[in-house]
Structure formats: C-alpha cells, structure tokens
Amino acid sequence: FLERGLSTVQNPILGLVAPQSFHMTVYDLIVGKAIDGWNGKQDISEKEIADIKENVKNTFDQMRINKPMQLVARGVVGAFGQNPFVLVVGCYPNTEEDLSNLLVIRRKLESATGISFPYPFTGHITLGYIIHELLSESYNVFVNLLSIYKDIEVGEFEISEFDFTYFYDMNNFIPILTKNLVRGDTLERRDYD
Predict the structure, then answer these.
(1) 3-class state of residue 137 by DSSP
(2) 0.85 exceeded by the pTM?
(3) Are 171 and 186 in contact (CB under 8 A)?
C-alpha cells in the first residue's frame, strides 16, 4: 500500500513512519497531560513514568476482554490542522462490542491516571508527517493527491495486545507493559531507563 499509494506524494515534504513502527494509539497519556499548554515538548520524568506505569498496570490487570478486537483500516487522510501535518489511515472497530471495549479502556485509563484527553476517540495509524510547511499551491496539490485515497480499504486487522509504550519518536520506542487480551495476563516488558 505505502509503496503503491504514497509514492506519488513522497518527496522532501513527507517523512514516512517505518512500517514496523505502525501502531494504533488508544490513549496518548503524554499529549493528554500536556495538551493545554503544549509547546511540542513531551519530556516526562522517570518518576512520572513509574507512577503512570503502576496505574496502567492496575488498569490492564482489571481488563476482562478475553478475545482479540477486530478492526478495519480505511481512508488515508491528513489530520490535525488546516495545513495537515500528520498523514493517517483511519481504524474502525468491526463491531459495537469492540468499539465499546475501546471506549471503556479509554475511560478506565483516564480514571486511573487522572490524565484527560480532550478529543473524542479517533482510531488511526500514523503513516507519516509533513516535515516542511506547505505553501498554499503545494498544499492544494497535496490535498488533491491525498483525496484519491480517502476511501481506500487498506484491510482488516486484529488487536490481541495493548502496550504501554514510551516513544522517543515515531520510530524509536520502548514497550513497558503488554496486556494480552486472549490470555488476560500483563507482562512487564522492561523498566523505563
């Protein structure tokens, strides 16, 4: 999909996320915490991570889903602002039960961590970033190219695990906790360092 579809817009303005880094964010604990006065800095102390980790682990341990969630990836769009700087594909639960489970998980994480995310849940996988501002004419060309893919069916996938992960950037990250939805266990992957 990326090679076929995005090669038409791939140039110095677009930085793609490595496919092995693709993930669907269910709840962004850092941006949710800093959104009011966000200045692009997402530093967080080791103590904050340890406190959040304990709260997330407790939430994961209480989750009782016992089966993978089924989702479909569809529609490549630019997101966040008039001059889109994030390229995403939408992710949609296949059933009302899966949507309900995702929303419950979000509410439980908010309650457990005290970190409120101000936007409604919009499932997506980040594909890339605009790395240079687009001038009006270039912006219009980009949006027109992108509109070709707004309804594209990328495919179905399942979520069988949730990770609590620290991202240095979109291609470099440390998984800290993993909740297996089928077995029900929570694995401590490694301590944050």
Answers:
(1) helix
(2) no
(3) no
